[in-house]
Amino acid sequence: MFGLSTYAFFWQLSDRVSRPMTLEEAFVATKESGVDLFQICDYAPLDTWDDARVADAAASARDLGLTIELGTKGVDAARLRRYLHLADLFGATLVRSMLYSPTTRPDSTAQAIAWLGETLPEYESAGVTLALETYEQVATRDLVAVVEGAESPVIGVCLDPANVVARLETPGDCIAVAAPHVVNVHVKDFAFARQDGWVGFTYSGARMGEGLHDYPDLLRAVRPRERGINEIVEHWLPWQGDEESTTRTERDWTRTTLDYLRSTL
């Protein structure tokens, strides 16, 4: 199934615009795009909402017929239990996270596995999958070692090969190593561009199909449609100089990415 993430609405949801979109408005825009899946990923207000506010948002999603996934950062027990509780309120069956959060980080693979051991039995009982994302702070092989070491049927990898370039891993290597363990995919294109004066490069998002991402290779290696793995659209869109240009481009990138994904069916 294809889905949209809060990262597909990054600027529209942000305080950088004159009237930020609400989460419920993002739900409506998702449904209007012909999509029935939404991943609430790293959405800061969610960490401050009480159960009543969360229940209101969950009801809005249900009324639209949306399936919800959740995303956070960290694998400490308090963080994972909070998001397991939120998953129950939203009826979500997948939580994406990362090994490191802004405040906690395991100092070894063994410690990460031990932390996960505190909460994975609870995820198993609830039928919720935990997807740990590939990113630049952790080598993909080390992330896979954590997933394998946890020895749980409900833990896997959220594959985002764009992230690992910052640690000089190639997207292709990341895909090859992670493929057997993937349970969620983040979809965005990316590219390098020369900085002004030709001194160095900027690594940033690109309109889907116009960057460096070999998405057909990912489809061949991971086989997400055969394995029932959801593909979640997000963007790395730089600010375009003004609010109108930025939000218009963000909407265009979303349409383009969905069109691209549908063309691969």
Automatic annotation (TrEMBL):
This chain belongs to the protein called Xylose isomerase-like TIM barrel
Q: Which InterPro entries match?
A: IolE/XylAMocC-like, Xyl_isomerase-like_sf, Xyl_isomerase-like_TIM-brl
Domain of life assignment: Bacteria
A Pfam family annotated for this chain is AP_endonuc_2
**Annotated ranges, domain Xylose isomerase-like TIM barrel:** 29-256
**Which GO MF terms does the UniProt record name?**
isomerase activity
Q: Which UniProt keywords apply?
A: Carbohydrate metabolism, Isomerase
Answer yes or no on keyword Glycoprotein.
no
Instruction: Respond yes or no to whether keyword Isomerase is given for this record.
Output: yes
